[in-house]
Amino acid sequence: MAETTYTVEGMTCGHCATSVREEVSELEGVREVDVDVESGRVTVTSDTPLTTDAVAAAVTEAGYRLVA
């Protein structure tokens, strides 16, 4: 198992968190996605480490931006 925390810019509400959670959850191997709107943190637990590009693409699909 791998756990990685990312910072996402632009989330302001529960709907934002749900959108990000749904998109990231669709990535292969993802077991859990925890989103904290206040801090912008998204913690992803997956079978194997994910590429930052894959997570960034999912976050972009949700309408937000992954902060490097």
Description:
The chain has 68 residues and is an alpha+beta fold. It has a domain at 27-67. Helices cover 34% and strands 35% of the residues. The protein has 2 helices and 4 strands, in the order E-H-E-E-H-E. It has helices at 14-25, 52-62, and strands at residues 2-9, 30-36, 41-46, 65-67. Strand 2 and strand 3 form a beta hairpin. Helix 1 crosses helix 2 (52-62).
Key phrases:
68 residues; 4 strands; 35% strand; globular
Q: Strands, helices and their partners?
A:
Blueprint: E1 2-9, H1 14-25, E2 30-36, E3 41-46, H2 52-62, E4 65-67
Antiparallel strand pairs: 1-3, 1-4, 2-3
Short description:
Keywords: Copper, Metal-binding. This is Metal-binding protein. The protein has 68 residues and is α+β, with helices and mostly antiparallel strands.
Main sheet: strand order: 2-3-1-4
Order of SSEs: EHEEHE
N-to-C span: 23 Å
Number of strands: 4
Structural class, judged by helices and strands?
alpha+beta
Whole-angstrom Rg: 10 Å
Low-confidence stretches: none
Question: Helical element count?
Answer: 2
* Largest sheet data: 4 strands, antiparallel
- The overall pLDDT, averaged over residues, is 97
Q: Share of helix among residues?
A: 25-40%
Beta-strand percentage range: 35-45%
Shape: globular
Keywords: Copper, Metal-binding
Organism: Amycolatopsis vancoresmycina DSM 44592
Protein name: Metal-binding protein
GO molecular function, one term: copper ion binding
